[in-house]
Predict the structure.
Amino acid sequence: MGRKAFWLVASLLVVAVLLLVSCAPKAEPAPTPVEPIPATPTPATPTPAVPTPAAPTPGTPKAGILELKVTPPPLETPKYGGTITYNLYSGRGPDGGLDPGVANTGSWGTNMVFEQYWTLDRTRGVLGTGEFDYSSGYFPYPAFGPKLVESWEVPKPGVWNMNLRRGVRFGLDPTSEASRLVNGREWDIEDAILNFKQRTQPGSWTSFNQPRTLTNTSVEQTGPWSLTFNMPVDPFAGWCWVVYGCACGGHNQFPREVIAKYGNMLNWKNAVGTGPFFLTDHVSQTVTTLTRNPNYWDVDNLGPGKGNQLPYVDTIKGFYITDMSTRLASLRTGKIDLDTEIPWEDAMSLVKTRPDIKYSPFILYSVPTVSARMDIPGKPFQDIRVRRALMMAIDMESIKNDLYQGYGVIGGFPASPVSEDIFVPIEKRPEAVQELYRYNPERAKELLAEAGYPNGFKTKMLLQNLSFWLDLGQTIEAMWAKVGVEVELQPRESALLSNVRRNLSYEDFVLTGQGLIFPYGWNQTNFTRDGSSNIPRVNLPAGSDPGIEVPYQEMQSYAFVNMEKAAEVYREKLGAYLSEQVYFIGLPTTYMYTIWQPWVKNYAGELDQSPLSGAPQWLRFAWVDQDLKQQMTGKK
């Protein structure tokens, strides 16, 4: 079965195909660079060592014209001006609001308008020292550096002492009433405390997904520019949802005047942040426009442009194009400058016709899994023999080699292959786990008979109505039919599927993606706590499954003070137990590609932590070679 589109993580909103606009303004004179800001101090927390278990070996893809390792382009002297067009393949713009206190705000562009305490250290990425590959959307803890904080320390798990940066100002957009209200003043500790209260109030996205973390987390001012966060329960989740805020825009820093006047940040016209761009226009499901903040505080930190005021481009336009053929045509003709999560099959066809185009391969950290509820009496999946049988009835090698044409990796549960600190290759797991990955329909039939289902059973499977998921679902349907399990596939729009999970209005199987990476809190809460990611509803109430709870609590005792030990506990205890119990059946994951035009410089395929936003935060460093663009397309 061919694949024409890949997954967009189950929580993403799928929208219809929309119009493409491709006008780019002519370059304006370069702004006068400001005096460089002094280098930020090294965080007080020592950089923990990261264990390096054997990396997955995907083998040679059958089709094989796309490289799986690409040399990053050299850095060139930047120029100011121009426009970057970006495809919002996920359809997640500011329609749902930008305020995590009232909505799931993982929408595109938020981390270019607003900013966070921390950021990824670009100097250690592919264009710097090469220590970290930022192409997958997964980053280990040592990859982070200071942004709105100057330094931090973790004296013990769950306690964060953070020193805020001075001299950061909110952008002043004279066309915005909300921005004029703030008048470009300095961001301060009162804003930081307000932000914490805003995103942890009852009804917030954090309170919905992490109620246990929320009720056990507090913040106090410990100095004129110092904060201490206390999260004695679930510190990994607390870091993810509160301190760093990697989930759902929890990190957005708002000015208190705007919240006082408008109550929240639901209306995009009230967006006022400290970031490199203003949100200046938005046409729902069509185009979102970001305009350069001329007084942005930060500077370039690499190459010939080191010390230059950021950002370089005048405008970034995000278009909402979900149809894969339209996305490819837009890249092929130069109407779109950058797109990501392009399946290998489509990337290959594009590179054949545009060999000059730039690309970067990656494995998305979200791993396809199939799981069913364990808390409804009488369901077959409650029996571990049934779970083992169903996994053995799936031909993993066939999915990898036939469906993915070799562009895949097997064994992505309970850790994504990109998360090398916790990933364990199949050959290093116990034999009882290894045999689950060997296709054995005869043994599957025997296990089903032992469990009381000699003739199989009927079941249902919810999945997203995108061709990747439909192909994968149909493949599983056919394989399970060979052992007598009859599956009724139930495709749903992404938003509807999310609501079904949130409301627990499903009874059988769900085929979706899981972000199985470390140390991010949602990985662990997939199978430890109440929330929409815990599809099989295991370890509820918390602590009812000692095989999960005991190693989970041991991990928490090492949180951010001994990350190597915490990762070891995940690999050898929590992950090992989950593999044996088969609460989730982890399916092969496949390669995808980020693709960009050759005139987009200072960029090498880096992605943000959240697939909802793709590459935006890196675009503050990107610049457009307008002369090259004109040579290739006839227009700047």
Remarks:
- The domain at 366-589 is CATH 3.10.105.10 (Dipeptide-binding Protein; domain 3).
- The mean pLDDT is 84.
- The chain has two domains: 83-357+597-633, 366-589.
